[in-house]
Design a protein that fits this description.
single chain; mainly alpha; 3 helices; 3 strands; 11% strand
């Protein structure tokens, strides 16, 4: 081995070999400061990702809620259109036998019917039944 330095005394050799306490302290402070800056950077990036993720989830939930609300409104409209009272409001009638059963082709002469229209119930009797072919 070849030495790059030559020490005049053993004390001088020790000084050359062992770093100065101030240099070591300065180096440690520098490394600590650098590590803290890296931790701060990672922390800020994590917060930004969390905020972005939270916003994305909120927007997605908002879109799903709006879609669900629109489907609910459409279902309400459909149900409203199929509501018997709405149908009666359009001029239709519901005819029932006295038993409450809906009238069909088995209705016979002499039976009593209740015919429900928009704002009234008409009581009528069957005088004749003609079958459609």
């Amino acid at each position: 081995m070849v030495a790059d330095y030559r020490a005049a005394t053993p004390s001088n050799a020790a000084q050359i070999l062992v770093p100065d306490r101030r240099e070591v302290s300065s180096h440690v402070r520098h490394r600590l400061k650098s590590a803290l800056q890296q931790i701060d950077t990672v922390h800020l990036q994590s917060l930004q990702q969390l905020t972005t993720g939270r916003q994305s989830v909120a927007e997605s939930l908002s879109r799903r809620l709006e879609g669900s609300q629109e489907r609910l409104r459409a279902l309400k409209r459909t149900i409203s259109q199929l509501n018997p009272k709405t149908v009666l409001g359009r001029g239709y009638a519901i005819a029932r036998l006295s038993s409450g059963q809906l009238v069909d082709e088995t209705a016979a002469r002499g039976q009593e019917l209740s015919i429900e229209i928009k704002n009234a119930i008409i009581i009528a009797g069957v005088t004749n039944v003609k079958k459609n072919h």
